[in-house]
Design a protein that fits this description.
With 434 residues, the protein is of the alpha+beta class. The chain folds into 2 domains: 140 residues, no CATH class; 169 residues, no CATH class. 39% of the residues lie in helices and 25% in strands. Strands 5, 6, 7, 8, 9, 10, 13 and 14 form an 8-stranded antiparallel β-sheet that branches. It has a 3-stranded antiparallel β-sheet with strand order 4-11-12, with no helix packed on it. β11 and β12 form a beta hairpin.
Length: 434
């Protein structure tokens, strides 16, 4: 399966790159610019061929993270670029000699097609798949489960708007809780009792960490976290791990009060006492498994009609664009570097999304990546499309051409820095795996 996931990742990434470079190629061809090569990837060529009587080579190279279109006149009229068998090319077909507005369209066409691809993928996700909405604060109870035996029931008429597990403590979230990584949670119990194999007990608060929720695994039992109660306060800095390791005492059982709150017209709160989850313990191997509680998050499913799919597509595109702009802006002030990821991070995230959330959210993730690629390329940094657009704007305003040598040096330095950044991010991804 890992090989299939790797191949799928390379395919998806290649589609984004091909679409981007096709934008440049199509616009250049439309304005008559001579294109030497359309390449997917960098480094040594694995495949390089052109049609009979064609003028543009199609190449697949060994490093699949990127691509380019090589055009005549990118470095003014450097005839050393001419391929074998081509002695001269009409100067009118040089990129340097087309009008600035045409050159701007050629430079922006890749970004445009990535945006179009994102819209198409968002629309497919919103129209061709059953939509799922996970209610983290609402629950279902499985028949004949421990939760059902304990007396938990669901409002059949309106199960996803009236019943809650615990009470929402997110508005009173402490700094300690943030440090503990519980960015959104519900307290289930403040009087849980963990019993160890040596007979000692520990009083803990039992919380549900909603940041760990997935569609594939919706059992609350897998989202439980435990923090000791000290002086009637929850100590979020000293989380209790129930998966006993060789350095911990084996846990025999965990008993706590599961609280349900019904927010109907009467605003009645009901406590179900004596709910217990027992753990199977192998003292020698120190392995601990939780019994399935039978309490799971409510999953609401529905289908969008054509109009709703169009509306949701626009919303998704807008939200992802704003999110990416905010993330990029944060990097310039030293925020958000921990969330920056490269190919390895994208691979692990996309694979996890496919396994846990299904094809719809997998497609949606790649739509966001396509938006990311479009916006990133708009940054006016040497080597990116945004840099070429900035140079065109400066030359158009000043009506003077910038020195070609200076532009070449800036582009070379920019590419070196970009490759260096990519290498650092890959190293960061590798360390992140461990």
């Amino acid at each position: 399966m890992i090989i299939l996931h790797i191949l799928l990742f390379v395919l998806c990434l290649s589609v984004l790159v091909v679409i981007h470079e096709l934008g440049h190629l199509a616009a250049a061809k439309a304005f008559g610019v001579y294109c030497f090569e359309f390449s997917v990837g960098f480094g040594p060529a694995l495949f390089r061929k052109k049609r009979k009587r064609g003028e543009t080579y199609i190449a697949i190279r060994s490093i699949p993270f990127g691509g380019y279109v090589s055009m005549y006149g990118e470095n003014e009229n450097d005839t050393s670029e001419l391929p074998d068998g081509v002695e001269n090319i009409d100067p009118k077909r040089s990129l340097a000699n087309v009008k600035k507005w045409k050159k701007a369209i050629i430079m922006a066409a890749g970004v445009f097609l990535n945006a179009v691809l994102a819209l198409v993928l968002f629309f497919i996700s919103n129209s061709c798949f059953e939509q799922k909405q996970l209610y983290l604060s609402h629950f279902d109870v499985i028949d004949n489960s421990p939760a059902s035996t304990a007396g938990l029931v669901v409002d059949v008429e309106n199960p996803y708007t009236t019943l809650y597990v615990g009470w929402n403590d997110i508005n009173n979230l402490s700094e300690e809780a943030n440090v503990a990584g519980a960015n959104g949670f519900y307290i289930v119990s403040k009087d849980g009792i963990i019993t160890y194999e040596d007979g000692t007990n520990l009083t803990v608060a039992v919380i549900i960490d909603t940041s760990k929720a997935t569609f594939k695994n919706r059992d609350y039992v897998d989202l439980f976290r435990y923090f000791p109660i000290e002086d009637n306060e929850i100590n979020y800095m000293n989380e209790v791990k129930i998966n006993a390791s060789s350095s911990e005492k084996a846990i025999l059982s965990l008993d706590f009060t599961l609280t349900t709150c019904s927010y109907g017209e009467d605003e009645i709160a009901t406590d179900i006492k004596g709910y217990s989850i027992h753990l199977d313990s192998e003292v020698e191997g120190k392995t601990v498994t939780l019994e399935d509680s039978g309490v799971q998050m409510y999953l609401y499913t529905y289908w969008n009609n054509f109009g709703q799919a169009i509306s949701e597509t626009g919303k998704d595109f807008g939200k992802s664009s704003v999110m990416i702009f905010e993330a990029l802006g944060g990097l310039f002030v030293g925020k958000g570097w921990d969330s920056v990821g490269g190919p390895i991070a994208i691979f692990t995230e996309s694979t996890s999304t496919l396994q846990n959330f299904g094809a719809s959210y997998f497609i949606q993730l790649w739509a966001i990546i396509s938006v990311n690629l479009a916006i990133f390329n708009l940054i006016p940094f040497p080597g990116l499309d945004g840099w070429h657009l900035l140079v065109l704007a400066i030359e158009g305003i000043t009506r003077k051409k910038l020195p070609e040598k200076a532009k070449s040096i800036a582009s070379f330095v920019g590419m070196v820095l970009l490759f260096g950044l990519m290498i650092l991010i890959v190293i960061k991804d590798i360390f992140g795996l461990f």
